[in-house]
Structures are given as C-alpha cells and as structure tokens.
C-alpha cells in the first residue's frame, strides 16, 4: 500500500467502491411512489363516494395525505419507506409532510418553541414565503390587467 503510485491506488479504490444499483432503485422508487399515489387515489375515491364536491375532495385528499405522511414520520415508519423507495417516497405530498415534520422531531429536546416550532418551518418556510409572495404579485397583475373590464 505504501509503495503504490496514484494510478495503482485509483484502480484499487475503484474496485472497493460499491457499484450503484440504478435499475433496482428506479423500480423501487416507481413502486413506492405508485403505492403512495394509489393510497391518495383511494382517499379521493372515498371522499367522492361520500358526496363531497370536487373542490372539497381535492382539499380533503391533500389534508389526509399530509396527515398520513406526518403521522408515519412521527412513528418512524416514513423513514423506512424512504430508505426503500428513495425519490418515490420524496416526491408525493407525503414526502413534503415528512420534510416538515422530520426536522421538528429531531429538535424536540430543545423545547416546543425553540425546538419544534422553529425547526418545523425549516423546509416549509421558504415554500410558504414564495407561495404567498408570488400570489401577491399575481393578484396585483390580475388587478392591473382586468381593472377596465
């Protein structure tokens, strides 16, 4: 090892690095993401069957899926789903819920205000600020261009 030159060491290191399993990761992401979306579709169908209008069904589905993602994160289950499904678990709305709840849980020892509340908006804060800010800009543009009509 001591007498190895850079080229030999590079070859040695390349042999030791595990090869990524792209196809397996892609398939697992597809299956996990598809399963989460299937649960969302089942929630949507259930809400529709119970007589809610389209707007209420959309809102209700989002609320229930965020709750499920947050609840599973709190139980430590969503992290296991994420390890198996990778990006498939990160993309749906439940992944966003996980991204909000995880930092808050990590800092719960700091207390409710400086721990949970402060870290709860680590991810959500920029999203909410951008959403509110851009909706104000769109509202002003809408007001300016439709005022005469």
UniProtKB/TrEMBL annotation:
InterPro entries from the UniProt entry: Spore_V_AC, SpoVA
NCBIfam families tied to this protein: spore_V_AC
Transmembrane regions listed in the UniProt entry: 21-44, 56-77, 84-101, 121-145
Protein name: Stage V sporulation protein AC
Pfam families recorded: SpoVAC_SpoVAEB
Lineage of producing organism: Bacteria, Bacillati, Bacillota, Tissierellia, Tissierellales
Organism: Tissierella pigra
Keywords, in A-Z order: Membrane, Transmembrane, Transmembrane helix
Top-rank lineage group of the source organism: Bacteria
PANTHER family: STAGE V SPORULATION PROTEIN AC (PTHR38450:SF1), STAGE V SPORULATION PROTEIN AC-RELATED (PTHR38450)
Recorded name of the encoding gene: spoVAC
């Amino acid at each position: 090892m001591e007498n190895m030159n850079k080229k030999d060491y590079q070859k040695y290191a390349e042999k030791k690095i595990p090869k990524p399993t792209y196809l397996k990761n892609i398939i697992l992401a597809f299956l996990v993401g598809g399963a989460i979306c299937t649960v969302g579709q089942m929630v949507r169908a259930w809400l529709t069957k119970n007589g809610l209008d389209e707007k209420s069904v959309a809102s209700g589905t989002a609320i229930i899926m965020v709750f499920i993602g947050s609840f599973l994160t709190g139980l430590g289950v969503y992290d296991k789903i994420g390890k198996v499904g990778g990006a498939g678990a990160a993309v749906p709305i439940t992944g966003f819920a996980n991204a909000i709840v995880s930092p808050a849980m990590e800092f719960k020892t700091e207390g409710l205000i400086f721990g949970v509340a402060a870290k709860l908006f680590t991810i959500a804060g920029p999203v909410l600020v951008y959403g509110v800010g851009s909706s104000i800009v769109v509202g002003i543009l809408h007001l300016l261009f439709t005022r005469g009509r």
